[in-house]
Design a protein that fits this description.
This protein is mainly beta and 414 residues long. The chain has a single domain, classed as Methylamine Dehydrogenase, Chain H (7 Propeller), CATH 2.130.10. The longest helix has 18 residues. It is globular, with a radius of gyration of 19 Å. It starts with a helix and ends with a strand. This is LALA0S01e00122g1_1.
Length: 414
């Protein structure tokens, strides 16, 4: 029954959705290996008065014109378990602190347990408009968000003492409805968590929007093994009744430690995952049983904490970043082997990069800046077409954002 439903969602309804009049930007997507450029990037400042910074992407991939828009929520950073001080950078210890689905943008507010939603103006995607009040999340310290346009569902992962995942329906023109309930994870945390271990890494809907995947980081010192949780999306999206299952299949993957940021490898059931303990892994998720399997594990050379992963359709490879090592590493989607290492020492004043995303022939990576009150930057890495990747711009955000900046999402999302 569940599987039939999922098949219907995947093939029947999914197809119906795709054959609706497609917006112009989606029609541009054609041959593999070629991907249209992004039009705008978004991240959150994660300052007390939390705000989104939206940045214009030019046709040549470079960036300009940051605009700040308040989320009407409160930002916050977790503690570092190692120092017992506020963690900086990476105060959320997550990938996906902001997310784009269709013309909608979502951002978590860790300081007041809410999630904000914005409408993106397609004529000028740096122009975003807050829709309604931020929605309350029934958990502590939201760090990551993902939305399903097909199902009009938004899900949030929380890393505090009430850690887990909660979901709500949303309407692209009205805002977010009531969050359902917390699907708890066994996190040994206070309301403000001490990370990075034993917290949620990322929530993300699968490409066909029939599953919700969540990475939860383990903590070897406490004998806790991290896992990948898979929830099923059921109910009909046509009647607005799509729901994420209450229970999940949690798979611990022998050899992994702290599964963090991830992205699905297109048209496959495989996921490319960053793991700060050693580098990266490729994992498969069974579409019928929701259980996961480790396919490849790869150490990233010189790494200290490989936390974020993004897949570039142009280069057909994955890119990962590390906040403690000034490099961006490119890896194979087939076996996770290392393809290239871009040494970013000369273009980045910080010790490394945090979140990243790919669009067209470019990969964009967020640098938190050097020390307190210094500006965040976004590096533009040219990839694909010319094979040898290189940084073509480091865009300085000036007074708009500093080392608490978090997340990175692109419009259009596909
Ligand atoms: C990219 O395009 C922008 C806007 O047209 C222009 O200002 C900039 O000089 C271009 N940069 C490169 C490297 O071509
Ligand atoms: C959000 O907006 C409401 C209404 O304008 C205001 O009362 C509240 O203080 C705002 N909250 C934050 C955190 O900005
Ligand atoms: C961390 O700081 C809090 C108070 O801010 C204190 O209660 C706690 O014992 C400290 N933990 C460690 C491991 O030092
Ligand atoms: C931003 O977009 C909204 C609609 O989404 C529109 O009403 C508003 O005029 C736009 N603002 C600017 C400065 O273009
Ligand atoms: C972890 O497990 C090992 C072996 O089972 C045990 O020796 C050790 O005491 C455990 N540590 C903690 C913190 O529970
Ligand atoms: C995990 O892998 C190690 C070495 O690769 C192996 O010795 C161990 O038996 C495995 N454990 C499980 C539970 O499969
Ligand atoms: C990166 O470049 C810097 C400066 O050119 C150099 O000092 C450093 O050794 C390089 N790192 C690696 C891992 O090659
Ligand atoms: C950073 O900015 C805050 C607020 O403007 C200020 O209180 C603090 O002294 C500044 N820190 C440094 C190192 O400049
Ligand atoms: C590729 O690398 C070569 C040699 O390292 C360099 O001369 C060339 O400018 C690079 N091309 C691009 C597009 O970065």
């Amino acid at each position: 029954m569940l599987n039939n439903l999922k098949l219907a969602l995947t093939f029947g309804l999914g197809l119906a959705h795709v054959t609706q009049a497609l917006p112009a930007y989606a029609q541009q997507e054609t041959a593999p290996g070629w991907a249209s450029n992004g039009q705008a990037l978004y991240f959150q400042t994660n300052e007390k008065e939390n705000a989104i910074v939206s940045v214009k992407i030019h046709a040549n991939g470079t960036l300009s014109e940051g605009i700040m828009t308040y989320t009407n929520g409160t930002g916050a950073s977790m503690l570092s378990a190692a120092t017992n001080m506020t963690a900086s950078p990476d105060g959320l210890s997550s990938q996906g602190a902001v997310a784009v689905a269709g013309h909608s943008l979502f951002a978590v507010n860790a300081g007041d347990n809410t999630v904000s939603m914005f409408n993106i103006n397609p004529e000028d995607p740096t122009n975003i408009t807050l829709l309604g009040m931020p929605a309350s999340v029934p958990g502590d310290f939201p760090v990551t968000v993902s939305a399903s346009e097909l199902n009009n569902l938004v899900c949030v992962g929380t890393s505090g003492s009430t850690g887990g995942v909660a979901c709500a329906p949303y309407s692209p023109f009205v805002g977010i409805g009531k969050m359902d309930f917390l699907r708890s994870f066994d996190l040994d945390q206070e309301p403000v968590p001490a990370g990075p271990l034993d917290t949620v890494g990322q929530v993300r809907f699968s490409e066909d929007e029939s599953q919700l995947l969540v990475t939860v980081k383990g903590n070897p010192a406490a004998n806790k093994t991290g896992f990948l949780a898979a929830f099923t999306v059921g109910g009909s999206c046509l009647t607005g009744e799509a729901k994420v299952s209450a229970a999940s299949i949690e798979s611990t993957l022998n050899g992994t430690v702290a599964l963090f940021g991830f992205e699905q490898i297109a048209q496959s059931n495989r996921y490319f995952v960053a793991d700060p303990a050693y580098g990266v892994a490729i994992v498969s998720v069974d579409e019928k049983t929701d259980s996961s399997l480790l396919l490849h594990k790869q150490a990233v050379p010189n790494q200290m904490a490989t936390c974020w992963a993004a897949i570039s359709p142009a280069s057909n490879s994955a890119f990962v970043t590390d906040p403690l090592v000034n490099h961006i590493v490119e890896l194979s989607l087939v076996d996770a082997s290392v393809i290239s290492v871009v040494n970013t020492t000369s273009s980045n004043d910080a010790t490394g990069y945090t979140d990243l995303t790919a669009a067209g022939n470019f990969v964009y990576a967020l640098s938190p800046g050097t020390q307190e009150n210094s500006s965040a930057e976004i590096a533009v890495l040219s990839v694909g077409e010319w094979k040898n990747s290189s940084i073509i711009q480091s865009f300085n955000l000036g007074s708009m954002a500093g080392s608490s900046a978090q997340g990175l999402a692109v419009f259009p999302a596909y």
